[in-house]
Sequence to fold (98 residues):
Amino acid sequence: MPNIQEELETKLALGEPTKYKVLLHNDDYTSMEFVVEVLMHVFHKSLHDSEQIMLEIHEAGKGVCGIFTYQIAETKVHQVKTLAKSNGFPLLATMEEV
Fold:
């Protein structure tokens, strides 16, 4: 029986995962205090950072809350939606590829 050797060249190209920024959007109904609470509890921002981001959202119409991998960004968007709905606010969170 002949001895057959196969040589396989396998190269794994591991790159950085695609990142997504999570955005909160301004509306006329959600209170600034609630936005600050969401930023502190969902995104683990300090009070100072939360207030700065909230002001950016208020003035520019939207603001970046963080940059995450797809699954984490999707989870954060869902957490914001659930929290806002349970508190009677229409706060919108979206995600965009960086």
